[in-house]
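Quarterly update, task 2.4: nicotinamide-adenine-dinucleotide-bound model.
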Amino acid sequence: MTLLETSNTAWVDGQAVQPKRTFAVLNPATGETVADVGDSDEVTISAAISSAAYAFASWSKTSTAVRAEHLRTWADVIEEHTGQIAEIATAESGKLFREARGEVGAGLAAIRWSAHVLESAERTELPAPSPTRTHYTVKQPVGVVACITPWNFPIAAVLVKVGAAVAAGCTVVVKPSEETPLVASALAQLATQAGLPDGVVNVVATSRPAEFGDAIASRKEVRAVSFTGSTRVGKLLYSQCAETVKRLSLELGGNAPFVVFADADIDRAVDDAVNARFYNTGQICVGANRFFIHDAVYDEFATKLTDKVSALNVGNGMDEHSDLGPLINRRAKNHFRSLLDDAASKGATITTGGAGDDDSLFVDPTVLTNATNDMDIYSMEIFGPMACLHRFTDDDDVVDMANDTDAGLAAYAYSQDADHLAHVGSQLEAGVVGLNTTQIFASELPFGGVKESGVGREHGHDCLDEFLEIKSVALETGDA
Ligand code: NAD
């Protein structure tokens, strides 16, 4: 049996569990059913939480060396299945197969990084207040972690969260997106195959995600929630988790500005603009949502970007000639079309692309010029292959324009004046800033948002801290 054939079940306590009901997962490129997937009900979700709580008692006491070894073995086993994992992700999300392979690589790097951070952790001794008193702190795993992941990075979102939580000594219940549940189940199967103890990694998929939110909010054993998804759902979970005061990490939506100053290297900025807007068919939280281009270089930038974008190929993610795949579902296509119609009705010009008029989930990569701040594309996350070009003339104003959003995930700026760029970088209200680059992901670089884009950080040297409590110990050893 292939991994695809065995990944349509929940994975609880090291075993496949098939709930009574199923729901169909469709391939967005073809509309065909990829699999009928077990639709976890209250009973299965509850069993997964109990399994994680039971496993926590021993996993949290396992030595750091053993935990790191388990994680590395899991990573090695996933690596051996890279092709199969990427194929499942392409089938259920529509993403390009080569991008899915890259995503497996990013997820493996995250697991191995978590193992490295775990082994580098040290106990902190504090200055002694008296000859007989010692003060120190220890970090201890917080407990069961619920990991809720989106469809746009169905592999990496799972591996980043689970890698850090499990390294920290926590056990997890993963709830993948109902659009892309298969790959998470496959990764959990491989965890068991790699020897991770039963109950450390559990996965439940459901077509009724609110039921999962309700279940974890009410269960006291779930001590932390690590969520990646929309700001709307993140806010809901924030309020639900208040009841039992859980630890929350929220990686939410963005509205990234991409600022090109008059002295920028335009060819480089155009190349990076294609990456920042069209990677993963534009369905990416750090995607450049609002391009602010200085008047002096606006026409050149618009022409060069339009030329590049009109040469991109749209097609099935398994076709190596495709540069973009389909959108994830009908709702996403309607959203794309409505943003485009709104912008066009308010004076934007479509220089290439469009929503198309067929029934498929494919749209043409699109560039809009004359974008203005009264259009929906200015304030809403586009989450599709549409680059919207705004014009600016005053360098002092553009930072205010860039920051004119409740989101604060990523921001980009291009200039050949290093001092100016550094100053702008310090003013941009974003958790992650790319200056003359869009390569903003690295194991050692913390990732996360400010303002309404989230709480907490993934990656970086402190990545395990999201899942650790600090215990302060005062030890009195008697008279000196
Ligand atoms: P979404 O919020 O609709 O869904 C995310 C996850 O939450 C899914 O697993 C979904 O089933 C679950 N969910 C939905 N309602 C729930 C509820 N009531 N209780 C518990 N869980 C619930 O988001 P999406 O459409 O899957 O993903 C796209 C969004 O994710 C975009 O806004 C994007 O910017 C954001 N995102 C952010 C990052 C980041 O790192 N900041 C990364 C990727 C995606």
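Highlight for this quarter: The chain has two domains: 4-252+452-472, 256-442.
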